[in-house]
Automatic annotation (TrEMBL):
Thioredoxin domain boundaries: 36-200
UniProt name for this protein: SCO2 protein
Gene from which the chain derives: Sco2
Residues that coordinate or bind Cu cation: C74, C78, H165
Keyword Disulfide bond: yes
Native species: Certhia brachydactyla
Subcellular location(s) of the protein: Mitochondrion inner membrane
Length: 202
């Protein structure tokens, strides 16, 4: 009798675990369909890296991507965000079992941020951070595709100006699908933890 009860209990538990697993798979499948349908998942760009090579989103398929829009003359916000991004990358690199992750910096100030300016600026951050620039039209289209607000302020007496822009870092999965975004309130540790969870659940 005890053996029968134990067997029945095991069967019920196994069945419950199976149903829970199936429900979770269905939930993830629905979530993925929703993410694919988002405008952000369709976003693309046509820019050039600091070596002058043409780059599109499809060039980074197969890797996770952290994408940040900013500019090299930014007085404080962009350096803070890029240092945070660099710290998150360093934390994730301590776990070699995790899949590849490519960080990208897209300028919102192509008038001043040519390839040489980007290369100089990005030396102060993570060594794998890749800078992207282009024509004013290309940069504007890339920002609009990701829903990034960009507005250049009036120049001062020296011709200097500040570019107001959305402060967000976007996470794209290996299929180029938008998975998450991180604002100024998220710490490097929180960003790294979130990226890791997305990778593990992929």
């Amino acid at each position: 009798r005890l053996a029968l009860v134990a067997a029945l209990g095991g069967a019920v538990t196994s069945g419950w675990l199976y149903l829970r697993h199936q429900r979770e798979r269905q939930r993830q499948s629905r979530r993925l369909r929703q993410l694919r349908a988002l405008r952000l998942s369709q976003a693309d760009f046509e820019l050039r890296d600091t070596a002058g090579r043409a780059r599109r989103k499809e060039d980074f398929l197969g890797s996770w991507v952290l994408l940040y829009f900013g500019f090299t003359h930014c007085p404080d916000v962009c350096p803070e965000e890029l240092h945070k991004l660099s710290r998150a990358l360093s934390l994730l690199e301590k776990e070699p079992a995790l899949p590849p992750l490519q960080p990208l910096f897209v300028t919102v100030d192509p008038q001043r941020d040519d390839a040489a300016a980007l290369a100089r600026y990005l030396r102060d951050f993570h060594p794998r951070l890749l800078g992207l620039t282009g024509t004013a039209e290309q940069v504007s289209e890339a920002a609009a595709a990701f829903g990034v607000y960009v507005s250049a302020g009036p120049p001062d007496a020296d011709g200097d100006y500040v570019v107001d822009h959305s402060v967000l870092t976007f996470l794209l999965d290996p299929e180029g699908i938008f998975r998450d975004c991180y604002g100024r309130s998220r710490t490097a540790e929180e960003m790294a933890r979130s990226v890791r969870e997305h990778m593990e659940g992929y």
